[in-house]
Amino acid sequence: xxxxxxxxxxxxxxxxxxxxxxxxxxxxxxxxxxxxxxxxxxxxxxxxxxxxxxxxxxxxxxxxxxxxxxxxxxxxxxxxxxxxxxxxxxxxxxxxxxxxxxxxxxxxxxxxxxxxxxxxxxxxxxxxxxxxxxxxxxxxxxxxxxxxxxxxxxxxxxxxxxxxxxxxxxxxxxxxxxxxxxxxxxxxxxxxxxxxxxxxxxxxxxxxxxxxxxxxxxxxxxxxxxxxxxxxxxxxxxxxxxxxxxxxxxxxxxxxxxxxxxxxxxxxxxxxxxxxxxxxxxxxxxxxxxxxxxxxxxxxxxxxxxxxxxxxxxxxxxxxxxxxxxxxxxxxxxxxxxxxxxxxxxxxxxxxxxxxxxxxxxxxxxxxxxxxxxxxxxxxxxxxxxxxxxxxxxxxxxxxxxxx
Length: 404
Known about the structure:
By secondary structure, the chain is mainly α. It has a single domain, classed as Growth Hormone, Chain: A (Up-down Bundle), CATH 1.20.1250.20. It is 81% helix and 0% strand. The chain has 19 helices and no strands. Helix 5 runs antiparallel to helix 9. The model has no long low-confidence stretch (mean pLDDT 79).
């Protein structure tokens, strides 16, 4: 009976009109994005053999959010969020199509690849800033936590195999085939988004886009809880999520498993994220979200240390499943808490501010890549993971976080 009730709590968002189309579109977008992450990271590492450049390619994907975050958030509060989702998917499809052509070269120009990854990174803030507020538009505030979690679950349960599929395609065919397929799937996602009918009524705006952007920036200083959550996200993005940037090196130099094995490592991380998001969805409107976030951050750090220590492929797969669960839980809890901390008219802009926070995540891969070039990948990951444990334990003591 408890399992039935848990399942109903986690899936009741599908009773809302158009939520299924949003869920399906997000799943397609995610599948294509996992393919992109896997294929392009391997392409840069395979072409250059450089740990630093591989990490830099990951940084290129996140850096645009520093500029696009406030703009995307302001746009999500003033124009059709559905339209923004379609634009984001089409932009991704176009960029991935270009990358698939560049990947055909015997020696793909790394500078051009990095520029294209920067362009791909522009679409991500638009997608996130539109998706999260749109979920609440469709299901209402009371079901927002379950709906955000189950949407994130869908992105992973469908998207995660994209990493494995990309690895197999790279090994059997070529990188260009994997990226080309990702471009096609982005177009499928755009088609599903076009079927969404949002109940949100657009209001005439008396302010300019620039004014809305500035108001979103001021929001951070005006709301202490928002500032605290965003600062925590910056730290977690740099100390924890930066681990993604060196996974190709872990797969090749430490595990010796090649592109298919790398795809399995990424997929295992994704499988864990499925469990993390489904667990949050099952909690419903859980009251102690702030302490839960602090505990997840500390556990995240311990798992990164575990990745650094392990040299056994099967054990690393299990550890990365835990890493994925922590990553998914951090993201979902941040989206939920940030939107709960502001008035409805600022929900797009506060998610835009979150995009700025993860935009600072380019620093972590660059520092991790540079450190790994000197100390090695394993000691560098151990340092980053240990620092993240201390951050999680520290923020858990903040009274304001315990109140959230």
